[in-house]
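Now read these lines:
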Amino acid sequence: MDADAKERIAKNTQEQAVAAWTHWLNEEVQKKVDAMLAEQDGNLEKALAEMQELKKFVSDSRHILGTVQTKHGEVAEHVQVNISNARNYINGLVAEYTFEGVGKTAPTDYLRNGADVQSKFYNGAKRTLEAVKKHLDKYPYFVKNGGSYDIPRDQYNAIVQALEMQKEKPSALSKEQWALAEAAKQFERDTGLNFTKNVQPTLADYSDVQLGKVGDTIRKEEQSLRKTDQEKRAEIYEQ
């Protein structure tokens, strides 16, 4: 056999080996992609199940605690729990919130990573702060035992902004902002709490949980979850 023939045989053998290796590699990659997509299917299913649970809860307001003007308080609790869990699920994370083991009229509204949380949603940041104070007056052990408070995101942000501006640039505050900052400082003095440590913002604004608005809130969140799902799937292919 001449040298050229040997070279052709060697080349063919090498090409066959590369082809076999490439085929095997493609199969392994496809298996991995399929497994990751199947996992994401499960993530989406769990996320949408949380949203379905929320839709079921708000579909009939007769079983929701309070009057027409105050039912948004319990709605806010379910929005926080179900949407937070749905957002975790869609990203492949575990749920952080639960109502399990919490009585309907207990001092605790829900658990976050096993810790007690009381949610307060009143019309106006100062009224919400007053509600937190009243709850703490009634249950003085609540924070000492690891509990914390959740309040509407927009109210929380308004309080934090007012406090920061009063400290850094007081002349820029409006009368309303100044009064809010003073109310927040008085709240800290009366309760002994650190506002940013013991009080947390919810994922929803006050208006988002009202009976006439919560349907839109849910629809927007479902759209956002599906968008995140598509982004996660695109990431899988890119990987």
Notes: The mean pLDDT is 91.
